[in-house]
Amino acid sequence: MEFTFTIPDSALQDALTERMKTYKPVDPFPAVLNKQQASKFLGCGRATLDKWIKEYDDFPVAVIGGSYRFTKSDLEQWVKSRSQKHSH
Predict the structure, then answer these.
(1) DSSP secondary structure of 52-77
(2) pLDDT value, residue 35
(3) Are 68 and 35 in contact (CB under 8 A)?
(4) CA–CA separation, 31 vs 20, rounded Å?
(5) Residue 49: is it exposed, middle or buried by C-beta count within 10 angstroms (0-12/13-18/19+)?
(6) For helices 72-85 and 35-42, angle between their N-to-C axes, nearest 10 degrees
(7) Phi, psi of 70, rounded to the nearest 5 degrees
(8) Is 30 exposed, middle or buried (0-12, 13-18, 19+ CB in 10 A)?
(9) Residues 58/64/67/73 CA torsion (nearest 10 deg)
(10) Where are the domains of the chain?
């Protein structure tokens, strides 16, 4: 048995409008990242990430129990500060 029904465009638009009020995009990255996640987040390779860790004294990394950890907010701020220094 098959049923067909029609939803008025205005009802569909109202439903979408209500849904968008509570919509929150899904962030694929956790707040604290490991090396693999950090390099993906920054859009660079692991070798580049390792180079930046060694080369820049202000690179935002924490070593916890021998594991490298990065926060997204610190990485974003670091990239922003580097781009501001080189935009002049």
Answers:
(1) HHHH-TT---EEETTEEEEEHHHHHH
(2) 97
(3) yes
(4) 24
(5) buried
(6) 40
(7) -135, 145
(8) exposed
(9) -50
(10) 32-85
Is the CB of residue 35 less than 8 Å from the CB of residue 49? yes
Q: Which residues pair with 33 in a beta bridge?
A: 70
- pLDDT value of residue 67: 95
CATH number of 32-85: 1.10.1660
Report the SS3 class of residue 25. Answer: coil
The type of residue at 3 is F
Q: What is the pLDDT along the chain (88 residues), one digit of tens a residue?
A: 787 878 778 888 888 888 888 888 788 889 999 999 999 999 999 999 999 999 999 999 999 999 999 999 999 999 999 887 666 5
